[in-house]
Amino acid sequence: KQALLQPPAVESMSQAQVIHFSCHGYFDIDSPVDSAFSLADCICPIPADADSSKRYRQLANGDAIDLEKCLTLPDIFNLNLPECRLVTLSACETGLSDPFSTSDEYIGLPSGFLKAGTSSIVSSLWSVDDFATALLMIRFYDNQHFLAIAQALCEAQRWLRNSTQAELIQWTQNHPNIDQEHKQTIQQRLQTWYFPERKPFRKPEAWAGFCAIGQ
After folding, report:
1. Tens digits of per-residue pLDDT, 163-208?
2. Is it true that the peptide bond before 32 is cis, omega within 30 degrees of 0?
3. Three-class SS of residue 25?
4. Which SS3 state, helix, strand or coil, does residue 153 take?
5. Which residues fall within 8 angstroms of residue 54, CB to CB, at 6 or more apart?
6. Rounded to two decimals, what is the model's pTM?
């Protein structure tokens, strides 16, 4: 986090045109301002003073998230991203907002990036599957060569929904930007868990969680 929020990292981010987050994220409905991306080393045992400190967010398994080691919504509001055309939040619950907000604007992680200056955001509405998301994101970025961001996402979602196991394997093997090791990993997983004629990701939970916000 400190590298993200201090020079020269912030200065380099201010020049970025595309920023992609692939990590764990969560929306805190009780305190939206504490919504955050979980960064490295943020999971820790619950300290003795955790109940009296807003620094920690308790998890169901008994551990805690140290918010000082996360990228929180206030951190995002303080970023400066004037050149950024797209922020992709490839994490869980990044598109949720406070439905009970008394202000004119919904409070959530996307609103922080809009305030920071980015023009478009792709975010998620629920906990998403890592494997399906990886395929969706590859197709989404491919589509941006000839489609607007919202259209690129929509086409990627239709493609993932309608593709059979055999079609996904063929697409993977023919993709020029996936290295051989990852091609083998994708093919092995598809062959292990799915039949060639089946559409592995036809159910909405695999592809419908992502939405485009902004221009």
Report:
1. 999 999 999 999 999 999 999 999 999 999 999 999 999 999 999 9
2. no
3. strand
4. helix
5. 31, 34, 67
6. 0.83
